[in-house]
């Protein structure tokens, strides 16, 4: 592959986008007295909630690459801040699951909402075939990055 070809231009744009999104997330964390890992935890919890999954501390820790002690410290910090709560599982009351507090959802929406709105507006300019290509590309990149672990 040529170092200056159209593929590399897209790779560089993706890298620049990733950096900008990381900076945006870091600004949110800083403005709200959060650690960047707290933001990643909230994202993971909201993704699980959206897909109907209950999240245990172990599942969250694994998703974030944290050990048990690190996960406990994270959850204690986030619970004190009012971002999450530990509750009994719906299907198995012996299980403790972690839920995002609605106040954290509102806080995130107030900061990330404008970016999400601009992004969805951009996507409305693409037809179904183009959206499928974008979805396929982003899924492939995400899977490639996950394979590197």
Could you explain the architecture of this structure?
The protein has 6 helices and 3 strands; from the N terminus they run H-H-E-H-H-E-E-H-H. With 149 residues, it is mainly α. Strands 1-3-2 form a 3-stranded antiparallel β-sheet. The model has no long low-confidence stretch (mean pLDDT 93).
Give the gist of this structure.
By secondary structure, the chain is mainly α. It is 70% helix and 8% strand.
- Major beta sheet, strand line-up: 1-3-2
Total number of beta strands: 3
Q: Percent helix among the residues?
A: 55-70%
Unreliable stretches (pLDDT < 50, length at least 5) are none
Output the keywords.
6 helices, 149 residues, three-stranded antiparallel β-sheet, 70% helix, mainly alpha
Q: Layout of helices and strands, plus pairs?
A:
Elements: H1 6-31, H2 36-50, E1 55-56, H3 57-64, H4 68-80, E2 84-88, E3 96-100, H5 102-123, H6 128-147
Antiparallel strand pairs: 1-3, 2-3
């Amino acid at each position: 592959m040529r170092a200056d070809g159209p593929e590399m231009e897209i790779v560089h744009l993706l890298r620049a986008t990733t950096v900008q999104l990381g900076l945006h997330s870091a600004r949110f964390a800083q403005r709200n007295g959060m650690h960047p890992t707290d933001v990643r935890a909230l994202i993971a919890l909201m993704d699980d909630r959206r897909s109907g999954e209950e999240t245990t501390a172990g599942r969250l820790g694994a998703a974030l690459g944290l050990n048990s002690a690190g996960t406990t410290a994270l959850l204690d910090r986030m619970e004190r801040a009012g971002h999450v709560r530990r509750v009994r599982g719906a299907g198995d009351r012996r299980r403790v699951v972690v839920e995002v507090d609605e106040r954290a959802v509102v806080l995130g929406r107030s900061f990330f909402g404008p970016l999400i709105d601009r992004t969805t507006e951009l996507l409305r300019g693409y037809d179904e075939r183009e959206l499928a290509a974008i979805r396929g590309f982003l899924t492939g990149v995400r899977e490639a990055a996950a394979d590197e672990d």
